[in-house]
Write a structure and sequence with these properties.
The chain has two helices and eleven strands. The strands form two sheets. It has an eight-stranded antiparallel β-barrel. Strands 9-10 form a two-stranded antiparallel ribbon. The longest helix is centred in the N-terminal third of the chain and has 14 residues. The radius of gyration is 21 Å and the shape is elongated. It has a single domain, classed as Porin (Beta Barrel), CATH 2.40.160.20. Helices cover 8% and strands 60% of the residues. With 238 residues, the chain is mainly beta.
């Protein structure tokens, strides 16, 4: 995977410095859809969500009750796009995703029988540089495409609520927080069609592969940021 980064960096540089004079046209794309995180069986070793559920851990653990799929949710992206000849285009963009997942201890409760609750929250803001190849041409009636790029994913993860000390079963309130930025390869494919007046609509699928280190406050040392995005796209060319 590391061998992809020189090419990805070249893509980012092209996106950043390519002159609009080289472009046949330019435009703005808004994409809306669903982000689905990598499933439990495909997540990085040491992933915190698996650790919270006592999956793939080597220490005594009381599992939280939630599902990794609960972190699937709404994502939005905006991109400035410019043409690079008949068959290629480049774009720079930014996106936003945020999801809060409630959890409880699977096997433990308060002395009165009430649930011991937590909120697990993940927010990501990916800044992307992408090059797309459109084999039918950028002005055809139907425009399938493939793309590759990089995403600088600014992330913020927190666990807030009441927790249990496994050494003596003491219940205590706490908030654990970490954040950072990770660079990830980005792969995508889609199709779009002109609707007239410089307006195009379509659909796109993206895959990102990344994980981030977490502080020792968390049960797992890594946070898997990978997953698939399923998007509807709207482009305005000018």
């Amino acid at each position: 995977m590391l061998r992809l980064f020189p090419a990805a960096l070249a893509i980012a540089a092209t996106t950043a410095i390519a002159s609009p004079a080289l472009a046949q046209d330019q435009g703005f794309t808004v994409s809306l859809g669903y982000f689905g995180p990598t499933g439990a069986d495909g997540r990085v070793n040491g992933d915190v969500l698996n650790a919270d559920r006592c999956i793939d851990v080597t220490f005594a653990c009381e599992p939280l009750f939630f599902d990794v799929g609960d972190f699937g949710g709404f994502i939005i992206n905006g991109e400035y796009v410019f043409g690079l000849g008949k068959f290629f285009e480049a774009s720079g963009g930014v996106g936003f995703y945020q999801r809060t997942v409630p959890s409880v201890y699977s096997n433990l409760t308060y002395p009165d029988g009430g649930e011991i609750r937590q909120d697990l929250k993940l927010r990501t803001v990916p800044i992307t540089g992408i090059v797309r190849f459109v084999p039918t041409g950028r002005h055809a009636a139907i425009q399938p495409y493939l793309g590759i790029g990089i995403a600088a994913i600014n992330w913020h993860y927190s666990e807030t609520g009441d927790f249990v000390d496994p050494s003596d079963n003491t219940i205590f309130p706490a908030r654990y927080v970490d954040s950072g930025t990770e660079v990830a390869p980005l792969y995508l494919g889609g199709v779009r069609a002109p609707m007239g007046g410089g307006f195009l609509v379509g659909g796109e699928i993206r895959y990102q592969h990344a994980d981030a280190p977490l502080s020792s406050d968390f049960l797992g040392p890594r946070l898997d940021l990978g997953g698939w995005s399923y998007l509807g796209t709207m482009t305005w060319r000018f």
